[in-house]
Amino acid sequence: MSEEIGVSRITLRKAMAVLEQEGLIRRDRVRTEILEKRDILSACGKILFTAGAHYTTFFYPAVERLWNRFNSEVLSRGGNVELFCNDHTTSPEEWEQQIATAKVIFLTSTGSNRPGAAETLLQEASPEKIIVSLLESENPLTPNCIYLDNYSVGVKAAQTLIAAGCRNIGAVSMDHRLFGSPIFPRRMNGFINELQKHGLFNPDAIRLIPFPSSSRFNPDGGDNYSKNARIALEQAYATGDDGVFVSTDEEIGLIAMNLFRNAIIPGKLKLLTFNGVGDAMRHNPPISCLSHGTHRVVAAALEQLKLIAEKRFIAPVNIAVSPLLYNNFTLLDESEMTGIYAGAAVGE
Question: pTM (2 decimals)?
Answer without folding.
Answer: 0.81
